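A quick aside before the break. I want you to see a complete sequence-to-structure record at least once, exactly as it would be stored in a machine-readable document. Don't worry about memorizing anything.
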Amino acid sequence: MNSFQYKNPTKIIFGKDKIATLKTELPADARILMLYGGGSIKKNGIYEQVKSALEGFQVIEFGGIPANPEYDILLEALQIIEKENISFMLAVGGGSVIDGTKFLSAAAYYQGEQPWDMLTSRQPILKGLPFATVLTLPATGSEMNSGTVITREETKEKLAMGGPGLFPVFSILDPQVVISIPERQLVNGITDAFTHVLEQYMTYPAGGILQDRFAESILQTLIEVAPVIIKDPANYEAASNFMWSCTMALNGLIQQGVPGDWTVHAMGHELTALYGIDHARTLAIIAPSHYRYYFDNKKEKLAQYAERVWKITEGTLEEKAQKGIEKTEAFFQGMGIATTLAAYTEEVVGTAQTIAQRFSDRGWKSMGERGALNPEDVEKIVEMSYY
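That is the input. The structure line, written in tokens, reads:
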């Protein structure tokens, strides 16, 4: 296992009716900017719970953060932060609202020409305006990590950034919110978390025995609770395990001491930027093709995954590895997620070349767990995902 340093300063407050604890966790003298999305929290009762807990605080609201947090909209919120002398932010939503809040956290202290440069420079963010979260949609793990992904409609780009300055101070996770989540978003959340684990696990054996077991346990839990939570979102036990699995999938723990990949996400982000496809569904499109393309590099872990997660015990190492890919694809498809690009758009021709050129223009080379992925490989992988 590789050497590592690990620190996660985010306090997690998990359980029923925990939104009320906001009143004791927030700084008493804070000028708070409360951020949320399209208004679903006003239909499911979460807004009222948050507002009740915020009684007595100085609060300004900013709603309308879209599913892929849009740069230009976030700049409007940034103006409020500067004008109103905001000292603390509260993100009430899923990964998109939390990611948008992280961007604002960094932008509030940014001294450069334009905040978008933070995403193109890929420099770690060391300090940000403090913020907390009330999670309403389990999926991204953004409530307990320091990464964010922002979309810019003007240039059809979706880029990531992060750093130790972007951890939430605390996050409230009440599994009861799951009952109001539409099935499409539940399925997306399961797929997103599942693929987060695969990005940190599906590489090559590195002697991280415990880390592998952590990762496999999250995958097994998601597989077990997926049909339950889709059928009955009110099942509190399933909702609890679903929510905590999504958080654990990307809070930094399972990636310590082992190699990571993340090229599935890099390619998937481009599909969202170009076509507006749900983030989780772009991962389901790309991952199987990526594993088939890099089969020789990943076959040991693919076979281990097939054995331990899917209980495939017969066949050669290569046969087990192939079945591991097939089982992954079938898992996504079984939840109603198509795993080919053509299922989402008729404009597939040329997509691979466009994405590969973007990687090349940004200097994104030698990626993946072995530093072997180049734009030429990206083009072939995306082409494999067309049909």
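Two observations worth writing down. The domain at 182-384 is CATH 1.20.1090.10 (Dehydroquinate synthase-like, alpha domain). Residues 209-231 form the longest helix (23 residues). We'll return to this after the break.
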